[in-house]
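Quick look at the format.
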Amino acid sequence: MIKAILFDFDDTLVKSIEVGIKVIKDFAKKTYNLNLETKIIKKFWHLPFNNFIEKIFKNIEPTEKIIEKYTPLWEKVPIQAFDGVLPTLEKLSKKYLLGIVTSHTRRYLYKDMKMAGIPKEIFFIIQTEEDTRFHKPNPKVFDDILLKLKKIKIDKKEILYVGDNLSDYYAAQKAGINFYALADITTPKNKFIKKGVKTINNFQELLQILKCNEQE
């Protein structure tokens, strides 16, 4: 039986990639007269933020300088939760321990959570880019959380991770925890199906699956 549910953040709980692509392309053009291709942004989107910036801008300027210029712009960007996320989290928090495992920086994450109306208080742990030297698809990204859960008698088989990318799946699979993919956001459903990955189309579906599993 599932006792703890962990979530990726970008494009799992909130809509990030569509607005993110537009903002980063506008920023690149206005700041560096650089025309970034959408496929390049998508290719590196799942990386930790600092690595993402480094990959797409290459050596145009030191990464920290780019981030310094980009931050004021992103902090104004409106971020919305996916339909059903807020009531789903509220219902799940009454039965399960909830957590976030993301490659987002803590500063951006907290800003985006506030803007999307997602309360930090319902999560027992929030792990960001700065909290670990391991990142998805490396399964060690879950090591600290697995240790914390083990101390309160929750085994890895009683943990579910929900994400939107194959890197989320690979990390969870190798760590030995359950996984569901939110399909057709950053990764087409058929790609998950080919790997034998269980998918959901929305958060109402996740609630129904968990309810059915409890009844078995």
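Next, a different chain entirely:
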Amino acid sequence: MNEQPPDNPPSPFIAGWVRRAAGAHPGGRALDVATGRGRHALALAHAGFHTTGIDIRVDALQAARTRALAEGVSLALVCADLEIFPLPLSRFDVVVVSRYLDRVRFRHFIEALVPGGILIVETFTEHQLRHARGPRSPAHLLKPGELRMLTRGVDVLFDEEVTGPDALARIAARRPLSRRSSAAA
């Protein structure tokens, strides 16, 4: 397995959960939301997932394709605006959302999972404003505890918020196998 270049490695949190998900869903389908240059899509593909990356920026997707070819993995890449592009229902075993926030469509990411599928999210909180870099708009920053609220109805496997070196909320959650399971969450 080829490693990610040191200039843009996958998040250790996401990479760890991708490895766990690969054990539970070998050869499954994965979606990397707002894939950018593909750092997490490549990690998913290297873990054995049939991986789709979606992003609005064609230049970033071209860079992801170039990296995938160089690393000998296959990615399906979709250039689309996530605000209007309909995600398929119950299609993916894993959905990764990294440093992207769309509160209105968050349910769509969960609904794109098969029952038992894993959602892995890591994105900025408003505490990032204390740091010199990163997003500044409240539209791109979670309030404390907000990620947990956005993932209501899933079975939370891991949940944390950290303030340094970046202020991030992280969650790994499983879409319930039945409606009865989700009512308890």
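The longest strand covers residues 113-124.

See the schema section for token definitions.
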